[in-house]
Amino acid sequence: MKQDYFSANNIKYIDYKDTEILKKFLNPNAKIMGKRKTGVTAKNQRKLTTAIKRARFMGLLPYIAK
């Protein structure tokens, strides 16, 4: 089983401003990857999704890749 990225790197808060980390969880079409693919716990996946959506709304991440 994969190790949860956030617990492995001791990240307590998933910040929407940290786009470099958030980009790791987007596929080439800028869609959010599922927790089976990423290996993130369900709790952190929900936090991750919220952070990505906030970053998109603020214009930090794209909604779709060109």
Q: Remind me, CATH topology?
A: 30s Ribosomal Protein S18
Q: Give start-end ranges of low-pLDDT stretches.
A: none
What string gives the helices and strands in order? Answer: HHHH
Q: What share of residues is helical?
A: 40-55%
Q: Just give the CATH class.
A: Few Secondary Structures
| Record field, number of beta strands | 0
Name of the CATH homologous superfamily: Ribosomal protein S18
**CATH arch. level architecture:** Irregular
Mean of residue pLDDT values: 93
Gross morphology is globular
Main sheet characteristics: none
Q: Please identify the structural class as seen in this structure.
A: mainly alpha
Percent strand equals under 5%
Describe this structure in words.
The chain has one domain: Ribosomal protein S18 (30s Ribosomal Protein S18, Irregular). The chain has helices spanning 5-8, 19-23, 35-38, 42-57. It is an all-alpha fold and 66 residues long. It contains four helices and no strands.
